[in-house]
Amino acid sequence: MTSKVLIINFEEIYLKGQNQRIFIKQLVRNLKRKLVNYKDYLSFSKAFGGSYFIEIIKEIPEDILSEIVYKVKNTPGITGFYVADTSGITMDEIIEKSLEHVGRYTQEFESFAVVSKRINKSVPFDSMEVGRQVGSAINVAFEKKVNLSHPDFKLHIKVRGKYTLIYSKIIAGVGGFPVGTSGKAIAMLSGGIDSPVSTFMAMNRGLHITAAHFHSVPKTSPKSIEKVKMLTKKLTDFQGQIKLLLIPVLDIQEAIAKHTDSRLRLILLRRIMLKIGTKIAEIEKAKALITGDSLGQVASQTLENMRATEDATDLLVLRPLVALDKKTIINIANRIGTFDISILPHDDACSMFTPKSPETKAQLEYVQSQCAKLDVDALVQDAIEKMEIVVINDSEEIVILK
Questions:
Q1: I need a surface site. Which of 128, 309, 334, 344 has the fewest CB within 10 A?
Q2: What is the pLDDT of residue 27?
């Protein structure tokens, strides 16, 4: 065992029983992909119980360690992790390494507690003795007070088989399941607040996402596309790489405006978007569509209108935000870093197309009759043929495919 080790916890994966190994393999695969630029510092080890060990094989500069911590904490499937110092299993070795560890943080606390656990039962002392002796050494060396109830600083010590783990900073992860363990889905990604959050939530339940953005350029500004690229870039924190499909819908909007009831503009547009998403799902071998719908938030998101929209596809339509209020959605957006991008001004393909009096309780039969006035198949095919593909990595690289 090296002098430091990165220990990753995955509580929800641990509950998967016989399938646990599949989830851990995918998590490790995702981590290796995200940490490929740091492979000279890391050696992937193995899982113990509900944890996975990554050995730190040489000294890591603080700035690089910060980058590694950022990537790990934003990896779905990880509930928490910490960087631990390691020592031998004698009391002297444990005390020496504990003092070294605590010495890095003495400016941050006045009171402390030692939480010890003896997994190796062959050592000639118990957990309480570890706590007493290490606590006494810290008190003498740094003149800090013991406070077992509400300490400013908590030192954890685990005496394992041939080594001891010593750590204090436990960093929360995003939890959930590793991306890719639940299959693939197409996420409808706008430039607003909701859809990036729904995309993140889908990733966090193990779905590998391809993002589809519908735009009305040149009727709207190309800046709206740049904004969506920024949002996609932020979301690569969680997936590592995202294929972004840029789909023009201006011709579709003009056809809807010319041939159908104006009150149904948004419903008909969203139906065709779902049809396009369904075609894309066939290409990408995806099994679901993800939308940012939140029940009752806007006119198109009533039960009746969502039903009239969903009728356009046989694919499963997932709505991660359906029961969340706006405040909760904004809190998640802030936590994942998309909110400040989402509130930048932009032209939206749907908002510019909103009628003065949109239908809030659409009747499915009437919607279908209005949709029949359009050559939907031709409109869908034309939009897909004009689609651009942008592959965005969690590095600065952006690859554009025609």
A1: 128
A2: 94
